[in-house]
Design a protein that fits this description.
Layout (H helix, E strand, L loop, with lengths): L2 E5 L6 E7 L9 H12 L15 E5 L1 E2 L2 E2 L4 E6 L19 H7 L6 H7 L3 H18 L3 E9 L2 E2 L10 H6 L13 H14 L5 E8 L3 E4 L8 H10 L4 E6 L10 H4 L3 E3 L3 E3 L7 E2 L2 E3 L3 E7 L10 E3 L6 E3 L10 H24 L4 H17 L1
Antiparallel strand pairs: 1-2, 2-6, 3-6, 4-5, 7-8, 7-9, 9-16, 10-15, 11-16, 12-13, 14-15, 17-18
Helix pairs in contact: 1-4, 1-9, 4-9, 7-9
Bound molecules: ligand EPS.
Length: 373
């Protein structure tokens, strides 16, 4: 089983991460990991902090001669953006953790809470999960993501309107991770407008896993179901308010005969459609895994919102902290990371094995077995 833990405050010295359960002899490609971190840092609408941070990992343990050893891997990331004033937050921002966290942990204000609630933490998640992505790459499993909406602007091209792998790859060269540049100008204009107004914007993300084996997860118990695990992991990302698998909310709008993905056989079992998003009864069915998530607008709003001063209990205006106006493109990479973690973990559960050579061999045999059934 793969487990990971992150630690560190947004404006503290470092972020630290430990991941355990990664098999031995996985090629540890630092450049790949740093590139994943770079992908997460991109996106129009981030705070000036993104110009300050140069996220590159330092490996502390678990890697030798460019390969994993099977020991826990620990890594660190230096924060550069520590030179910010960090006053106590006594006029809590609605939607942020300032108030609820201060109440739960008996703090004077929100400072100690927001330092950890901050999405800076996701830098370490991406770093750790990119090791899972390296593992998936060895098995030819690919994970993509792109932004399908910002605010009320929705892009036309998505999984169910026939997006292709080339389109998904194109998202990496878009400032806001659009697979189709057609809508980019208008959406960037929209983000510029909210920055001018001192407001913020959320949006929607589509995450797609390709070349997925049959048999990840289980129908057997509620906490073994693959869709439940994916939904929980994506929902744990800062700002995410909704997760859908396949047609998601739309599933409730169609008759069964139209929704269910009919089974065909062409040298292996396939589906005519993929409304289920690659998962049936909590088990992957070999089709693409399709997940969608919605991120709420960032709670730090320059123009302020009504709140209460925690010292005087008087009506007040929420405190402003340097922040992003829109972080949806960045969250898109974090979603890829969480999906990679869940899938890598499920593959290891399915196959067992402590080192890459045996896992790759078992993986081949598993795929052959499924093909021949
Ligand atoms: C964040 C606020 C901003 C973001 C930060 C998340 O930081 P600061 O307050 O220092 O400007 O830049 O995100 C990151 C540093 C990052 O690496 O994603 C927040 O309040 O969540």
């Amino acid at each position: 089983m793969i487990r990971f833990l992150t630690s560190g405050e947004s404006h503290g010295e470092r972020l630290i991460g430990i991941i355990d359960g990664i098999p031995a002899n996985l090629q540890f490609d630092i450049q790949f990991i740093n590139n994943e971190l770079k992908r997460r840092q991109m996106g129009f609408g981030r705070s000036e902090r993104m110009g300050i941070e140069r996220d590159e990992i330092q490996v502390i343990s678990g890697v030798s001669n460019g390969k994993t050893t099977g020991n826990p891997i620990s890594i660190s990331l230096k924060n550069r953006g520590t030179n910010i004033e960090t006053p106590e937050v006594i006029r809590p921002r609605p939607g942020h953790g300032d108030l609820v966290g201060a109440l739960k942990y008996n703090q004077v204000g929100g400072r100690n809470i927001l330092e950890r609630a901050s999405a800076r933490e996701t830098a370490m998640r991406v770093a750790l999960a990119s090791i899972c992505k390296l593992f998936l790459r060895e098995l030819d499993i690919e994970i993509y993501s792109h932004v399908i909406g910002i605010g009320d602007k929705r892009v036309k091209l998505d999984y169910y309107s026939g997006i292709k792998t080339e389109d998904l790859k194109r998202a990496d060269s878009s400032e806001i991770r659009l697979a189709n540049s057609e809508d980019e100008k208008e959406i960037i204009k929209e983000i510029k407008n909210v920055i001018k107004e001192g407001d913020s914007l959320g949006g929607k993300i589509e995450i797609i896993g390709k070349n997925i084996p049959v048999g990840l997860g289980s129908h057997s118990n509620w906490d073994d179901k693959l869709d439940g695990k994916i939904a929980g992991s994506i929902m744990s990302i800062q700002g995410i308010k909704s997760v859908e698998i396949g047609l998601g909310l739309g599933s409730g709008e169609i008759k069964g005969s139209k929704f269910q993905d009919e089974i065909i056989y062409d040298g292996g079992y396939r589906r005519k459609t993929n409304h289920s998003g690659g998962i049936e009864a909590g088990i992957s069915n070999g089709e693409d895994i399709v997940v969608r998530a919605a991120m709420k607008p960032i709670p730090t709003i320059r123009k302020g919102l009504k709140t209460v001063n925690m010292e005087t209990k008087e009506e007040s205006i929420s405190q402003f902290e340097r922040s992003d106006a829109c972080a949806v493109p960045s969250a898109s990479i974090v979603c890829e990371s969480m999906l990679s973690y869940v899938l890598a973990n499920e593959i290891l559960k399915l196959l067992g094995g402590d080192y890459m050579e045996v896992i790759k061999d078992r993986y081949k045999r598993h795929k052959k077995y499924i093909e021949e059934r």
